[in-house]
Amino acid sequence: MNVTTANLKKLKIGMVSPYGWDLPGGVQAHIQDLALYCMEQGHEVSVIAPAIDEDALPDWVTSSGRPVAIPYNGAVARVAFGPVANRRVRRWITDGEFDVLHLHEPAIPSLSLLACWAAEGPLVGTFHVSAPRQKAIYAVGPILEPAIEKLHARIAVSQTARNTLIDHLETDAVIIPNGINHHAFASGSIDTSVGERSIGFVGRFDEPRKGLSLLLESCELLIDKGIEFKVVIAGPGNPDAFLEIMSAELVARTEFLGRVSDERKQELLRSIALYVAPNTGGESFGIILAEAMAAGAPVLASNLPAFQDVLEGGRVGELFEIGDTSELALRIENLLNNPERRMALRALGQKSSLRFDWGQVGESILDVYRMVSSSGEKVRLGSDFRFSRAKLGREE
Amino acid sequence: MLFVVWYLSFTATRLDRLHHRVETSWANLDAALRTRSALALEVARSNLLDPATAMLLLAAAHVAVIANQSERADAEEELSQLLLSLLEEDALDSEGEIFQELSQAREKLRLAIAIHLEAVTRTQAQRARPIVRAFRLAGRAPLPVRYPFEEIQV
C-alpha cells in the first residue's frame, strides 16, 4: 500500500469523553470539534460520554449514563464509574468495530479509564490536564500503569501537560495542541460599540485562578492615572462579589455580558483593543489565547508556562509576571497608547495562531490514527478481563 | 462557703469525668476510622471493582491513611462522601466477604461517632456554664470539637 491509498482509507473512529457531554468543558469541546473535523474528512466517528439528558445527544454520541459528582484530588469531579457505565462502554466497543479508539484523559478515574481497561488493539490517549503531583499517585499506580502501557500512542496538548505526564506516570507523549476554527475567528463582522480602547476578558470569571480580580485591581490603578479605557467581560458567573469591591468609576466602565454564543465571542474578540489573560495557574493550554490571536486581538497574558508556549515566549503577544498588578497596569497603558504596537501584534498573532487551526491539528491527529491502525487490527474487548470474577464483566 | 467549695470541686470532678469520656470515645472513633480506611484499601485492591471505582477508592482511602492531624478531618469526610456515592451507583454491590466486612466497619463507625458526639456535646455544654468559665474548672483540657465528617452519614 503506498502513501496515497493509506491516506484515503476511511477510518472508523471511537472517542471516549470522561466528562459529561452536556456540561461545559474544554475537553468535551475539543472532542466535539475533533469528531466534526474527522467526519468532514469522510471518516466515521462515534463518541461515548456521560450525559445528563440522553435524548438531547446528536446521533453520533452514545450515553454511558449520568455523570456523578464525587470528591477527587481535593476538588469535585463529575465522572462516570460503576457497573452501568462499564457495561455500556464494553457494549459500545463491541458494537463499534473501530479501527482506532481515542481515549481522552485516561488517567482520570472515569469512562476513558474503563474503556482503556476493557479494550485491546489500536488505542490512542490524549492528556489534557496539567496538575500538581497527586498525593495518592503511588497508590493508584497499579491501576494506571497497565492502562497507560496499552496506549499505542500518547498525545499531550501542551508542554505543560506533557511534563505532568512525565512527572506523574513516567511516560512520554507527542505534543499536538488543542484546535481552533481559525477562519471563524479571523473573518466576520466587528462590533464598533465595543470601543477602540476596550480590554477583553473571556471565561468563568468567578474562578479565582482566572485572575479577574487582578485585572480589576490594575484597572483601578489606570483610573488613578487618568487613562481612558473600557472593560468587557464575557462568561458564566455571578459578578456581584466583584461589583461590591470595584470603585463606582470602574463599575461605570465595566460591562459583564454573561455567557455568550460562539458567534458573539468571535465578534467580541475581533472588536476589542486588547485581550488580557491574568490567570494565576492551573492552565494546561489556554485555548482562549489562540482564539483571541486568530481574531486579531493583541494578547497580554501572565507568564504561565502554558501561555508562554501559545505566545511563542512573548514574540507574538506580551507576557507579564503572574500576579504583578502594577506591571499589568503599565503594560495595558503602553499598549492602549501605542496603536502601531497593537497593529504589529495583531498581524503576528493572526499568523502564529494558524498552527492551532483544525486543518493542521486534525491532520496531525489523523496521522497518529493512521500510524497506530496500519496493521489493520480492529479494536476489540480484551480477553484477559481482570474483573471477570465480578458481575461487572457480563454484557447487558 | 463550705457548700460553694464542695460544689466547685463536685463540678470539676464531673468535668474531668466528661473529658475522660471524650478521650475514650475519640480513641474508639479513631480506631473505627482506621479500620474503615484499611478495609476500603483492601476492597479497592480486590480486583472485584471496575478500574474507575477502584482508583477513586484507592486514592481516597490512601489519602485518609497517610493524612496528618491537620488533614485528617477533610480526608475522612471525603472518604465518607465517596463511599456514599459509590454505594448509590451500586459500584460496591458485590457479595464478597470483604464487602461485608467494610459494611460492618461502617456500621461500627456510625456507632462510634454517635457515642463520641454525645460526649462532646455534654462536655461543651458543661464548659459553657458561667461557673465553669469563671473558676476555670476545665483547667488546661482542650475544648472538644465536632468535625464535619461526624455530621454526615457514613
Q: What structural class should be given to the helix and strand makeup of chain B?
A: mainly alpha
Main sheet record of chain B: none
Biggest chain pair contact, residues each?
Answer: A-B, 36 and 30 residues
The total domain count of chain A is 2
Query: pLDDT average of chain A, as an integer?
Result: 92
Rg of chain A, alpha carbons: 22 Å
Principal-axes geometry of chain A comes out as elongated
In CATH, the homologous superfamily of the largest domain in chain A goes by the name Glycogen Phosphorylase B
Output the CATH class name of the largest domain in chain A.
Alpha Beta
Task: Kindly state the percentage of residues in helix of chain B.
Answer: over 70%
Uncertain segments of chain A are: 387-396
User: What best-fitting shape of chain B do the alpha-carbon axes yield?
Assistant: elongated
Oligomer: heterodimer
Order of helices and strands of chain B: HHHHHH
Q: Percent range for helical residues of chain A?
A: 40-55%
Beta percentage of chain A is 15-25%
Number of helices of chain B: 6
Number of distinct helices of chain A: 16
